[in-house]
TrEMBL record:
It comes from the Bacteria. PROSITE patterns: PROKAR_LIPOPROTEIN. This is Lipase. Residues 1-21 form the signal peptide. SUPFAM superfamilies: SGNH hydrolase. One of its GO terms (molecular function) is hydrolase activity, acting on ester bonds. The keyword Signal applies. Pfam families: Lipase_GDSL (PF00657).
Length: 393
């Protein structure tokens, strides 16, 4: 995607202001939520909605050692899986003395709602709704065609309300979504950009025509991210706050360009990826202005972590800890992209998929975009610090 021109967020906002006459003081994204609790909560449940970053084991059956969907599993979470390979949602819940389990587990045509309910004492713990591949409202998330459930956030929330009727004051509600909308829109943009540049190289388009086409493609992608952000904010307002949600934290998106995947892109394409997260964050903030929630600015938090890895005990934040070649061998060639869903870090196990020399605690990324065990600890520590700052824990 050489020669892609990036038209940044500032340029898009400038266009919006011109369209409004240039003098409108209501600049999108400059407002803030207001009215959220400032007192410590008495939490009995952690309720999380989102995607693979918050997935505590939805797709474990896909990693069945027997190959038939039954336990034991060698993977199941998008991290460096092991007995201690937990994701940030689990870390945070554990620090609060709360048990959280998947709201649904399955793959393909088979799934089970709240499998932990087989043990009656755990029936109320199935409040981790995040699923790998899930988008905000579109059920056809990343990996859906290959068997991933990708239940969108709109349905995740509806499923919670169906089961529990409403939210309780004792629920800590965490909403972290939009990443897969970024990947989807970036993929569409990248395909268009490749075609535009091929046409330009073949003399079918002039340089000006190519740049105009690229601008239109990027603007379209940013428009879809605005739509996703407004949809998520509407869900927070009408389906969480209006249904009893009191302690509600909503996460912005980090800069996906600061991942091994992002770093693999041409320099001209990385700003496009960055701007999709920024556009989402801008409109999410705008639509939650004066709403009684707290925003956690992961974009800024993670920027610091990426720029100062040593501050967080990280020695490698550029190379995935999971070895794609090993994972391909373990799965008999079924998984070739090195997905951390199938990456186990148990020392000496025949299904260990770690890269030689990798350390799950000091390497940040398990695969191209997902954190290791140590990477997830950085996230949970950062979010816990934010919750302390809010006065909630």
């Amino acid at each position: 995607m050489k020669n892609v021109r990036s038209w940044g967020v500032s340029a898009v906002v400038a266009v919006l202001l011109v369209a409004c006459g240039g003098g409108d003081p209501d600049v999108p994204g400059t407002g803030s939520p207001a009215g959220a609790p400032t007192t410590k909560g008495t939490f009995t449940a952690v309720v999380s909605f989102g995607d693979s970053l918050s997935d505590v084991g939805t797709y474990a059956p896909a990693t069945s050692l027997a190959g038939n969907g039954t336990a034991p599993y060698f993977g199941g979470k998008f991290t460096t899986n092991s007995a201690t390979g937990t994701v940030w949602v689990e870390n945070l819940a554990t620090s609060m003395g709360i048990v959280v389990t998947p709201a649904e587990v399955g793959f393909g045509a088979s799934s089970v709602k709240c499998p932990a309910a087989a043990t009656p004492a755990l029936a109320g713990t199935c409040t981790a709704y995040g699923q790998g591949g899930a988008r905000v409202t579109d059920p056809n998330g990343i990996g859906h065609a290959g068997g991933a459930l990708t239940v969108p956030v709109v349905t995740q929330i509806a499923n919670h309300l169906t089961r529990f009727t409403s939210f309780k004051d004792s629920d800590l509600i965490l909403v972290y979504a939009g990443n897969n909308d970024v990947f989807t829109q970036f993929g569409t943009f990248a395909a268009t950009a490749a075609q535009v540049q091929a046409d330009a190289a073949a003399g079918k388009l002039t340089a000006d025509q190519a740049n105009a086409a690229l601008f239109n493609a990027q603007t379209l992608a940013q428009g879809e991210m605005k739509k996703a952000a407004l949809e998520l904010a509407a869900l927070v307002r009408t389906q969480i706050l209006a249904k009893g949600g009191k302690y509600v934290a909503v996460m912005t998106l980090s800069d996906i360009a600061d991942t091994p995947f992002g770093n693999s892109l041409p320099a001209s394409a990385r700003p496009v990826l960055t701007d999709l997260s920024r556009i989402f964050n801008l409109w999410l903030r705008d639509a939650l202005t004066n709403q009684p929630v707290q925003l956690i600015d992961t974009f800024t938090i993670f920027k610091d972590g990426y720029a100062n890895p040593g501050k967080y005990g990280i020695v490698n934040n550029t190379v995935p800890a999971c070895d794609a070649t090993k994972i391909s061998a373990i799965t008999s060639g079924a998984v070739t992209d090195g997905s951390s869903l199938f990456c186990n870090s148990t020392p000496g196990a025949p299904y260990n998929g770690l890269r030689t020399g990798a350390d799950v605690n000091t390497w940040q990324f398990a695969d191209g975009v997902h954190p290791t065990t140590g990477g997830h600890k950085i996230i949970s520590d950062a979010f816990a610090a934010q919750l302390h700052a809010f006065g909630w824990i």
